[in-house]
Amino acid sequence: MNAACRLTVLVMMAGSFHLHGIAAEPAPHPGPSPASPRAITARSLPFLKEKGQDWIDDRGCVSCHQVPSMLWGLHRAAQSGLQVDQKHLEETSKWAVDWKNWNQSGDKEGLQKVAAANTATMAFLLLALPSELPAAADSSTGSQHWADSFRALLLEHQQKDGSWKAGGQLPLSKRPARENDEVSTMWALLALEPLPVPGTAKPSTNPTLTSAQKRADTFLATAASGQSIEWYATRLLLHPEDESRRDALLKLQHPDGSWGWLVAEPGDAYGTGLALYALAKSQSSNQSDPAASEAAQRAIRYLNDTQRPDGSWLVPSTRGRDKNKPIPTSTYWGTAWAVVGLLEWAAGSQAAAATVSHD
Q: Among 43, 102, 134, 225, whose Cα sits 20 to 30 Å from the Cα of 252?
């Protein structure tokens, strides 16, 4: 049989299989598969450490986002089994929880004034660091464990209307002032979530905390729909089992797999990392959602394709005055959030796979 006849027979056989309901192998997905979240993240870790340390060396302060972002990313990487400089991580963590390092004036303004301006700093450090980190909120006295001190200070500095006011650079961001306070309030609530009673899975009861949560809920109940993905992400994190909140976040994903920090703007690593983190936490509270899984894979592909050679992602400024120009701080925050989001999703996927294998 010559080549032309063989080709004709093969075409007829394929048609016969189709007519009789025998499906051919599906065509491969166009484009490359996304790199693994761990591989993408590993490329970012040197950038996080180097630029974070540069900030400390140059500014000598924690800042409400910069150092907490570095520590959150590096601690999450260490928990995921990626190689990090453990000595640097522990030393920097202990330095960061000392309130005298939160601004450049040291202890001149006093603890209460510094704490009032750094509620976001405390919230992010509570979320970023392992609670068992052996350190005090004041290294000169060592009088109280840092996490206990931060929780007490956060409760003390809640506003009368139930909110926590945005501090640092946050009031300068290109979203409504009310939304800045709503987001700061939601991060504070997440940081204050009740810890389990030692030796049990039951959360401890604290009347002061319960009252603070109720007042914050009253403040948030009057919120309009947010303009930032951070608003949608923190809203989902507070109630990760709420499908309507998850769907609202999913609907805001761009066709390229990204989310922008602002809903109406092009995608970036900052918004994408936040969304991926919130979806991962939501997946762990629910049975696996195929729509969320598909969205996450597209987000991972986006982050893989847009990562720069130094491991970072270029991110437009969140400040209105910068008119969407990328600046080092927003690029750093976005890179840190991409790392946290990727690793949180990878951890959730690994846990889900382990559960399936044991069923």
A: 43
If we measure between CA atoms, which residue out of 328, 277, 303, 342 comes closest to residue 66? 328
> How large is the C-alpha radius of gyration of the chain?
23
Q: Is 273 helix (H, G, I), strand (E, B) or coil?
A: helix
Residue 158, token pair as written in the block: 């809640």
CA distances from 248 to 188, 223, 293 (A): 22, 15, 15
Pair of tokens at residue 176: 């409504």
312: how many CB neighbours lie within 10 A of its CB?
22
Task: Give the containing element (helix H, strand E) for 322.
Answer: none
Does 28 score more than 60 pLDDT? Answer: no
CA atoms within 13 A on the CB side of 71: 31
Whether 195 is in a domain gets the answer no
What the block records as the tokens of 306 is: 């847009």
Number of domains, the chain: 1
Q: Which of 34, 79, 44, 38 is nearest to 346 (CA)?
A: 38
Let me know: does 116 contact 155? Beta carbons within 8 Å. Answer: no
Residues found in the chain: 359
Where residue 253 sits, what CATH number does that domain have? Answer: 1.50.10.20
Name the 3-class secondary structure at 52: helix
In Å, the largest CA–CA distance within the chain is 94
Whether 285 and 349 have beta carbons less than 8 Å apart is answered as no
The answer to whether residue 105 is domain-embedded is: yes
Residue type, 125: L
Q: Read off the pLDDT of residues 32-63 as tens digits, 9 standing for 90 and up.
A: 344 899 999 999 999 999 999 999 999 999 98
Look-up: residue for tokens 């972002």?
69
Structure-block tokens of residue 334: 């976005």
Residue 19 lies in a domain: no
The model carries a pTM of 0.85
Report d(CA 302, CA 43) in Å as an integer: 15
Nearest to 133 by CA among 149, 114, 116: 149
Phi-psi category of residue 220: left, alpha or beta, with phi > 0 → left and psi -120 to 50 → alpha: alpha
Identify whether the C-beta of residue 226 lies closer than 8 Å to the C-beta of residue 235: yes
5 in a structural domain: no
